[in-house]
UniProtKB/TrEMBL annotation:
Protein name, as recorded: Gfo/Idh/MocA-like oxidoreductase C-terminal domain-containing protein
Native organism: Pseudolysinimonas kribbensis
Alphabetical list of SUPFAM superfamilies matching this protein: Glyceraldehyde-3-phosphate dehydrogenase-like, C-terminal domain (SSF55347)
Family: Belongs to the Gfo/Idh/MocA family.
Every Gfo/Idh/MocA-like oxidoreductase C-terminal domain range: 9-140
Length: 147
């Protein structure tokens, strides 16, 4: 499911979405993506197994402050320029952007294949296509991997 709930003036796409994925082995995964949450963007992941749980949150910052007047850019998708703010130190590193770009440049220069391949991108987009079909149909949709 997905909808444009708050940013119709900024996008023709959805600004919030939830996907429920069911795997061939019966496992389930939920994916939530939104840029309408008050308090700024979260980058949280939870993996739950039969013997434990792993949680990451790269948007958690040990730095916060109260700002009375706007000072400019604080963090990606910040919903407020004043009040209590939580900038993320070294934001591109915390979100993995700089490491990702370095990885691709290193592999390009070496003439080797990166960890994430074109094939991986096709798989991700095939899953996204199934999610968009489910948004339109309102039902489970199979992932149709191209032959």
């Amino acid at each position: 499911m997905g909808a444009t709930l708050a940013h119709g003036d900024k996008t023709t796409g959805e600004d919030t979405a939830v996907a429920l994925l069911k795997f061939a082995g019966g496992q389930l995964a939920t994916i939530e993506s939104s840029w309408i949450e008050k308090g700024g963007m979260q980058l949280r992941h939870e993996f739950v197994g039969s013997e434990g749980r792993l949680v990451t949150d790269t948007s958690v910052s040990p730095v916060w402050g109260f700002i009375g007047q706007p000072v400019g850019y604080l963090v990606e998708k910040a919903d407020s320029e004043t009040g209590w703010v939580h900038p993320v130190p070294e934001e591109t590193r915390a979100y993995g952007f700089s490491q990702q770009m370095r990885h691709f440049v290193d592999h390009y220069e070496a003439g080797t294949e990166p960890s994430e391949t074109f094939h991986d991108g096709v798989i991700v987009n095939t899953i996204l296509d199934a999610c968009y079909r489910a948004m339109r149909s309102g039902h489970w949709e199979p992932v149709r991997y191209p032959a």
